[in-house]
Amino acid sequence: MKKTLIMFLAIPCLARGICAQGTRVATTKTDTVRRLSIDSDTAFHPIDLQRAIQLAQRNAPIAVQARGQIRTANSSVRAAYAAFLPGVTITAGQSNQTGDRLGQSGNIVPFNPKHPWSYTTGIRSTLRLFDGGQRFYQISQSKADVGAAEANDVAQQFNVALQVKTQYYAILAARESEAAAATQLDQAVAQLQAAAARVRAGAATLSDSLRSVIQVGDARLALLTAQNSLRIASAALTRLVAAPYLVTAQAIDSLERPLSPIDSAQLVELALRGPAVEQANAQLLSAQAAVRSARTPYLPTVDLTFTRGGSGFAPYGTGASGDTLLNRQYPYANTFQFSASYPLFNNYQRENALTLARVAKENADATLRDSRLAAQQNLVQQLASLRAAEERIRIQQASVASAEEDLRVQQQRYALGASTLLDLLTSQTTLDQQRAALIQARQDYRIARAQIEAIIGRDLQ
Fold first, then answer.
1. Which H or E run includes 418?
2. Cβ neighbours of 246 (radius 10 Å)
3. Residues forming a β-bridge with 327
4. How far is CA 398 from CA 392, 404, 427, in A?
5. Does residue 308 contact residue 122 with C-beta atoms inside 8 Å?
6. CA angle 180, 185, 189 (to 5 degrees)
7. Are 313 and 280 in contact (CB under 8 A)?
8. pLDDT surpassing 60 at residue 15
9. pLDDT in tens, 319-348
């Protein structure tokens, strides 16, 4: 009996404390949101999606490496064409002779020449006339490598765009979650105040107020979690765009966008010509040219060589008037030489190179086939995810509207004493779940569109 009396007397004090706590919670929530907006204004700089993609595609390491592969492949093409030009080598040298030598009678005599220094100059040029077509095949292989590098560049550009969109959409989802958590906190604080008032009036039990306090705490945790997710996604976006300052998504991008129709048949055709398939196809062409090039060592090679050289005792820059480096008072000789060579046996090197080239071609063929099937598979999966996300968005929008109306009715019934706090909290929990499901559906829809764009190698309208 005494315990019951003490609890009855403590209820008004506890109710006043709960009301004060609710006021502090509301103030804390307002301060938290205000701090977040201050952080957004001073630390995080808004950036639109297209600008973020452009910066990331310019600065991302994989994008830089892809552009470097294009330059390397183009350089190989120039080198392949240059193989048809003759190579030119200029030589020059000098030597000094001192010491002893054998005399005419076979004895050793001092070597004391009049001109101890001797000089040589020369030029040599070699042109390969026939190599079995190897140079032509190398040009074809190098051009195919350029095509593969360009396709890889496109693939990496859209891969970077996908990473940027993923983080950008994560920011949008975090903002939506933050707004939902703020609304949840407002409703929880209002419920706490209403419950405290009913406790003071003796129309509700202390359990109602305690449950309301738990709801307020859960709402605050949800708000903090959303804010933390926003900062984490913004930091990840900053790394992708390689900005010297922290960036975040623009607030206007958080608005709901209408769902646009997609032609599935056209997307399948685009996927079969996507960057991954184009790269695999170019690699197959390169492997085919490599096989033809590996067969050329079974044919002879024919070279034409021209050599002009001379030697004498006059140092460089001296001699008769008009002398040049290659036209001195030396005895010069001009030599034209045709040579043909054919390796009868080169320790199984030709056979080994041909086997490796054929295996590489078979691998490239299998890779191309698998790339087409993978593109088709991924497109079907992402289209299914996109369609499902579209339908989930429509369903969740209706569910959120119904849950909001249900909560409004339960709040009125609870205020009139026609329902219990448990019914009200159940409606509130249902609304929170439906809001979270709607946010996730929008996130899945955006990511599915970005995945499809990466597969086909172009932006969806």
1. none
2. 16
3. 324
4. 10, 10, 15
5. yes
6. 150
7. no
8. no
9. 444 444 445 566 788 999 999 999 898 899
